[in-house]
Amino acid sequence: MGKMNNQEYYNTIVQASSAEFKDRGSKFIAYAYPINTADEFKSYLQALKKEHPKAVHHCFAYRIGTDGNTFRSSDDGEPSGTAGKPILGQIDSKDITNVAVVVVRYWGGTLLGVPGLINAYKTATALALQVTPLVQKQIEVVYTIQFDYTQMNEIMLIVKQCNCSIISQELQLFCSITVGIPKGRMQEVLHKLNDMQNVEIIKK
To answer: I want to staple 100 with a disulfide (CB 3.0 to 4.6 A). Which of 24, 62, 146, 169 is the partner?
Structure first.
């Protein structure tokens, strides 16, 4: 994941998916979710715990952010290293981020042993990630642009032309919009904005 720093794009999923893997009576259901924050992940996990109250384990891993530095994995009571790590390993082998996978396990009465568990969590995760399309998104740098109402059309044109995404906007007499500027077009956007009078640009 460390190689992402100079890249302008990252890979992720945009829709949730699930898949099931069975081994000797144990059932492993993997749920993959596109997420942007750890809080988003927590609400998915809580919902799954409500949906599967009889499951013995809810193991997971996620990776967030284009630098790849925000990640977590949990074995949720399975032997150390048998669940969270294999789940994260599958996310990383696809080189994707802003993704969480939760694997819900129903106990089937037979011990699977460490290799069996690793295989089950890995396979369930791989299956869930296979059934959702991977997409490429541009890495964006977030700025707030403050400007006068009269400059709105000009600013919006730059935002649109350069493929920036609008995160939030307050359009009164003095306007403020927060935008994600594609990393590859940053110089161009900042250059255009800096050429304008009374426009303030603040990096978030």
So the answer is: 62
138, HSE (Cβ side, Cα atoms, 13 Å): 14
Non-local (6+) Cβ contacts of 135 within 8 A are 11, 12, 13, 14
Per-residue pLDDT of the chain (204 residues; tens, 9 = 90+): 444 456 889 999 999 999 999 999 999 999 999 999 999 999 999 999 999 999 999 999 999 998 878 999 999 999 999 999 999 999 999 999 999 999 999 999 999 999 999 999 999 999 999 999 999 999 999 999 999 999 999 999 999 999 999 999 998 888 999 999 999 999 999 999 999 998 999 998
CA–CA separation, 32 and 147 (whole Å): 41
Residue type, 30: A
- Domains for the chain: give ranges and CATH numbers: 2-136 (3.30.230.30), 139-203 (3.30.70.240)
Q: Which pTM was predicted?
A: 0.82
